[in-house]
Amino acid sequence: MNFRKSYKRKKTKPLFRNRFLRIAVVSLLLAGSAFYLIVFHSFFQVKEINIFGNNKVPAQEIEKVARAELDKKILSFSSKSILLVDFNEIKKQVLNDFPQVSRVDIKRKLPHALNIIIAEKSGAAIWRQGDKHYLLDELGIVFEEAEESELLEIENMITNEEPTLGVNVISKERLDQILEIEKRLTEADILLSEALIVSPERLDVRVVAGWEIYFNLQEDISWQITEFLMLLEKHVPLEDRENLEYVDLRFEKVYYKFFSDN
């Protein structure tokens, strides 16, 4: 007697009834919709750029730089989505193009506006090269040509090369030395008129009263100032200072000379 094994055929479910496939399709559609909304929908495209805090740099110039950095190419389509704005790139370009700017902050104002807040530099000193004057920031960078100013004038006697705006003309360390001299002498009621970088080792400071102080830039400036102030206190009373020609702090011993000396 022959026995035949019977098989029951399973019915295949249509693809659209597969729960996991349905979830995947819905998720894909939602992701695609979100992508379109974020990247291409006009609701989130940057339409307005507001500039705040600028006095010297024209707002339209800053806006021009920002708009040049906004446009993105995604799948060969153009997008200016506010949600995709590269803040760091705009900041970098503004700081690079405008030496007068010290800081850039950018904020989104949803749905389609950017606020760009600018902080402009104030001069730490005047850099004099020949007959031209430039504002110098605290890092030693010249950032614009200067008019008359009450700031201390610093002149480099080593070179006559005209500086380029946005470039370091003096190291921060050297500038800090000069500004320390100005600060401490001003506190002692000794006003400076200019500082001359004579060589990498020597700085000549001229005071408003007409005499000069010679510093060694390779040695401790703070100690040289202390020695100078001690000298004035002990050996050069106020009534004699108008006859002072110079004080030389470059050596172990402090030297000074009056105009009346032979």
Biggest sheet: strands side by side, in what order? 8-7-6-9-10-11-12-13-14
Instruction: Output the radius of gyration.
Output: 34 Å
Q: Give me the strand/helix succession.
A: HEHEEHEEEEEEHEEEHEE
Tell me, rounded to a whole number, the average pLDDT: 85
Give the total of beta strands: 14
CA distance, first residue to last residue: 145 Å
The level 1 CATH classification of the largest domain is: Alpha Beta
Structural class: alpha/beta
Task: Provide the β-strand percentage band.
Answer: 25-35%
| Number of DSSP helical runs | 5
Q: What characteristic shape results from the CA principal axes? A: elongated
CATH superfamily heading of the largest domain: Cell division protein FtsQ/DivIB
Unreliable runs: none
Described by strand count, sense and barrel closure, the largest sheet is: 9 strands, mixed
Verbal overview:
The chain is of the alpha/beta class and 262 residues long. It has 2 domains: 42-120, Roll (Ubiquitin-like (UB roll)); 125-258, Rossmann fold (3-Layer(aba) Sandwich), CATH 3.40.50.11690. Helices cover 29% and strands 27% of the residues. Strands 8-7-6-9-10-11-12-13-14 form a 9-stranded mixed beta sheet, with helices on one face. The mean pLDDT is 85.
